[in-house]
């Protein structure tokens, strides 16, 4: 499914994310699906703003195995979970933006509810600011297997769309291709910024 063009587009997306300041100090990780069984994931510990195609490792979607022997992202298990859960997802972007990091701590409930913003329509399938878009929030965990299991359990009853937040950590989002994943990232980040400002200014 993924051709070399998608990987090149992912590298361009990583450079854009780096320039935005959304992956500071080696934070963040990115991937594209190759086919039903394999994806390409960023190598762990690299500066994601200056990656090349050589910094992406082939990883098995079923069991996170990387045949190269090099170490893919510490958060590989969250990318492969999305590819297993959603066959339409072909690109996954994980970032550490200030808005995602702070808002996910300020909001104590299991989901951030976005409502009233025209930019909700930047998310595929959304047609009006009058609808409510829930973005699930999961407590952060250094045990990625345990975190992936928790997310998978939640997704059984609350199908995830566009992305999810990790509390005090960041945003993971996806799309049918790199271009759509970028739109979802940019749209969600804009909405998080608006929601932060709204809460600050409307505070009694
Ligand atoms: C800068 S530490 C952040 C990491 O622990 C992690 O959250 C992250 O996003 C990057 O990990 P990586 O293993 O490079 O993909
Ligand atoms: Zn992270």
Automatic annotation (TrEMBL):
Binding positions (Zn(2+)): 94, 96
SUPFAM superfamilies, per the entry: AraD/HMP-PK domain-like
Top-rank taxon, per record: Bacteria
Cofactors named for this entry: Zn(2+)
EC number: 4.2.1.109
GO BP: any one term: pentose catabolic process
Pathway note: Amino-acid biosynthesis; L-methionine biosynthesis via salvage pathway; L-methionine from S-methyl-5-thio-alpha-D-ribose 1-phosphate: step 2/6
Domain Class II aldolase/adducin N-terminal: residue ranges: 8-196
Pfam families: Aldolase_II
Keyword Lyase in record: yes
SMART domains, per database record: Aldolase_II (SM01007)
Reactions mediated catalytically: 5-(methylsulfanyl)-D-ribulose 1-phosphate = 5-methylsulfanyl-2,3-dioxopentyl phosphate + H2O
GO molecular function, one term: aldehyde-lyase activity
Cofactor note: Binds 1 zinc ion per subunit.
InterPro entries recorded: Aldolase_class_II_sugar_metab (IPR050197), Aldolase_II/adducin_N (IPR001303), Aldolase_II/adducin_N_sf (IPR036409), MethylthioRu-1-P_deHdtase_MtnB (IPR017714)
UniProt keyword terms in alphabetical order: Amino-acid biosynthesis, Lyase, Metal-binding, Methionine biosynthesis, Zinc
GO CC annotations, alphabetized: cytosol
Function text: Catalyzes the dehydration of methylthioribulose-1-phosphate (MTRu-1-P) into 2,3-diketo-5-methylthiopentyl-1-phosphate (DK-MTP-1-P).
UniProt family annotation: Belongs to the aldolase class II family. MtnB subfamily.
Protein name in the entry: Methylthioribulose-1-phosphate dehydratase
